[in-house]
Amino acid sequence: MRRSTAVIGVTLLSTLTLTSCTGASGTSSNGTGAGSSSAPATGGTVHVLAAADFSHLDPGLGWDGGVNNFYRLIYRGLTTVGAGPGAESTKIVPDLATDLGTPTDDAKTWTYRLKDGLAFEDGSPIDSAAVKFGIERAWDPEMGGSPYPKELIEAPADYKGPYQSGDLDSIETPDARTVVFRLKKSFPDFPSALTMPNFTPFPKGTGAAHAFDTKPVASGPYKVASYVHGTSLKLVRNPEWKASTDKVRAAKPDAFEWTFGLDGATIDERMLAGQGADVDAIAGSIQPATLSRIQTPQLKARTLSGYGGCTTYMGMNTSRTHLSDLRVRQAIEFAVDKDTVVAALGGSRLATKATAIQPPTMLGRTDYDLYPHSVAKARQLLAEAGLSGGFTLTLDNRPDAKNTALAVAIQEALKPLNIKVKINTIDTSSYYEVIGTTAKQNDLAITGWCPDWASGSTFLPPLFDGRRITPTANTNIAQIDNDAINKRIDEIAAMKDVAAANKAYGELDKQIMAQAPVVPLAYEKTITVTGSNIAGAYLSASFSGGIDLVSVGLKDSGK
């Protein structure tokens, strides 16, 4: 469960949080497109141009769409997401495990069997002990990453991971190839949670003191050959990886090379020029100013565009004066002009207006629009609330150009209602800390959310379960605590059929919006240009819609 990278520009550039699904005119419309008409050849080096380094090479610490994408090149887990455009990238598939696991005890116990012939880069076996140890690392006080190991797996309250506390009894290893997990409660979607990076196995006893942030131990097809933090990273083949054990990773290139610290405009110029080694390169989203320059047939042929898999929205703090009245919140819903919002984000090639909370890439999503733009309807609701005379609201926001444009669009949309919007600008580095502190949060806040996997379970409960409201690190910034919503969240969580649960989350989405706790603003898109020699590039609905690194390669490895 992550704050939306769609509203943090540096993350888009640094971690290849690109886009998937539907594209603009002349670009990929199905997540295939640029460089994908031919299968990659074996060999060569794929170059990656980026503004900033990855958050962490240690999967026990890193946790965002781009770095999770990168992790699949050097790490493997019991399960992972599928490799392929569109719906393929939302499927959960076996990786190190022979299947998606066997649930027993009402899905509170899960048993996995490892494939034969698995080894780390040092030649040591990837066995049940390594799986157990790698997951136990999530409890170490020095670790961060996704919350799922600690949220789902039984553990003593004072357990502090393998380095300090030793073995965790609730992860059993009856033999070298069998792992048994005992969970706190029934969780039918456990195979999806296992795709998170801090479920990565490691040789027992390794990785203390953040050692993997500089020298990882690879289980995937590549290993780290060299790494200069903030400057460069090179991966080469891991000779211990066996393609026969891996149905997900094509692993066609001999190497990947990242160059970090490049200015966004410089990256755009290099990708458009496509000279030298840049014919073998991929990069993050182009700058909005570059958009008008990619209209030639040659550049369109190397362009990918689509949804990033996140929702940009405005939270309305339901605990505040005026906003505690449903009619006021609904009036604001009707008043916000989504077409103006899309224009503020750069136009329809870079965003589409949002009506549902969940983005189009989510499984089971329901498409609806409860609040089509109507100033007249908004005025009527405010009159019913006795507030036609107007009032003042404070909108928390960040200082970058895009978010400033969004804030002004909101400000202008509410003027006809006599609602004065004061924009409170907060430094980006502390923004989420501030709006996640209930005592510091103001009336409104522009933010966003991306799922951990394509299920409503990682989208709606963290944002709208009233029992999750916390004084700090709060994700329910609407501070909505609605008994009917809370009850339905519990009912869906108890469903044993994951597909049925996802459909139910789609219906819950509409139920939540009837209470108007947030204004969905946009489903943002990103546009990226690939090198002319790139093959196998498609956009994954996972990893915030990035180019799937496990499938990309070169058309001609001899160039």
TrEMBL record:
Residues 1-19 form the signal peptide. It comes from the Bacteria. Keywords: Signal. Residues 91-468 form the Solute-binding protein family domain. InterPro entries: Peptide/Ni-bd, SBP_5, SBP_5_dom. It holds the Pfam family SBP_bac_5. This is ABC transporter substrate-binding protein.
